[in-house]
Amino acid sequence: MALSDFDLVLFGGGGDLAMRKLLPALYNRERAKDIPPDARIVCVGRHDWTRESFIEEVNRSSRPHTASGSPDPAVWDAFCRRIDYVALDATDAASYERLVNAMRKPDANRPVTRVFYLATPPSLFAKICHNLSQSGLATPESRVVLEKPLGRDLASARQINAEVGRVFSESQIFRIDHYLGKETVQNLLALRFGNVLFEPLWRREWISDVQITIAEELGVGNRMDYYETAGALRDMLQNHLLQLLCIVAMEPPVSATPDAVRDEKLKVLRSLKRFTPNSIAQNVVRGQYRSGHVQGTPVPGYRKEPDANPSSRTETYVALKAEIDTWRWAGVPFYLRTGKRMADQLAEIVVRFKTIPHSIFAQPNRSFQANSLIIRLQPDEGLQMNLMAKTPGDGMRLRPVELELDFRETFKMPRMEAYERLLLDVLRGQLTLFMRADELEAAWEWVEPILEYWEQEGDEPMPYTSGTWGPPAASALIGRDGLQWREEALPEE
């Protein structure tokens, strides 16, 4: 669907997210000829830059992050001509007059979609929305995009929803989670609801367990100020991991319309078994990385990172066991984990099916690897199905084999990054891949008992060596159910 003319206003336009992700994503859509001729990008920031000095910063900080790293000069110049810069204090209502003057005036004969993207700390969301309203910039036709983190707990999430909701209606609010823009997540929906093969098996009678992993090799980097107040549970599990769980576990929606899909995701969040202090102690593991080696390179521990608190209790790793109290999923454990300074960088969903009930072959049941479906989100997007097959030659000996679908090899066409797809959806007004207010609050309601327990107990996160797969307690967590994390279950080469 072609885009209509738009003015996209990026608050935090000189920040890391805008330079590394948003502007490169918009350039890629420029290169693909998706952007209308008169569309404009207005970057807003605190720096007292002129437009010319801001474009110099874009060339220095954003250009290297485009798809090739060296964009087509003519296309890049055309893209930069769309960009304007407005210096203002987001908390000062009077300074919004500069933004008013930079915007195109409404014209009934030439309608322009107006989008405000708030790539700022959430503490500024309400003030920015209020000032947009006071300056007359927020109209019933405009849209606002909210970047995570959307609150620190249930109360702050509700407050953000209420304050932003005073200016924008729910249909105008796009709460972004970039994991939902990944190609493989879209293919998970296609796999489940576009094929008759898997849906009859997608239930407790056939599935043993589900593992969802987002692992990073990187440490906290230059985000210490943010990370020390957030931690892995707020930063990754409450949003990314829970959204992936919802897509795996939700019932078939009546259609692909936004509220039909989001209604089913909300039902999953409300069906998650609630934590108690006892179940948290048994089923949640938190850790913090210590010094070690990642890909052969020595790295410091979290408490030795620049500007770190030497006695910090912030978790850089979380693993937990979740249960969904529904007919489809009763008794099926969902294991979620995320961590920094891990052995590898990957994001994947592993759906493991039950083992065969009886072997008719001259080899014991324990030699049969359970069938599993692996949905890889990064670094390489694709699907893998693990089956048992006969080895060539005389006799009847079975061994595990892998059926691979590499999306880059199968579809010989340019691929969109997550932010490209989500920005297009915002500009088209398509809400399916964005969280609704009740979804956000339900997610916080489920994780909040964990945060409260950690605060009340005051215990230390378990140390784990950088370059490993996390604390040994995470292996024990899944091992109590007679299972293993996927990398532990792989046969040795």
Automatic annotation (TrEMBL):
This is Glucose-6-phosphate 1-dehydrogenase. Residues 189-486 form the Glucose-6-phosphate dehydrogenase C-terminal domain. Keywords: Carbohydrate metabolism, Glucose metabolism, NADP, Oxidoreductase. It catalyses: D-glucose 6-phosphate + NADP(+) = 6-phospho-D-glucono-1,5-lactone + NADPH + H(+). The active site is at H240 (proton acceptor). GO terms for cellular component: cytosol. Residues 9-187 form the Glucose-6-phosphate dehydrogenase NAD-binding domain. Substrate binds at H178, K182, E216, D235, K340. Pfam families: G6PD_C, G6PD_N. Transmembrane segments: none annotated. The lineage of its organism: Bacteria, Pseudomonadati, Pseudomonadota, Betaproteobacteria, Burkholderiales. Its EC number is 1.1.1.49. GO terms for molecular function: glucose-6-phosphate dehydrogenase activity; NADP binding.
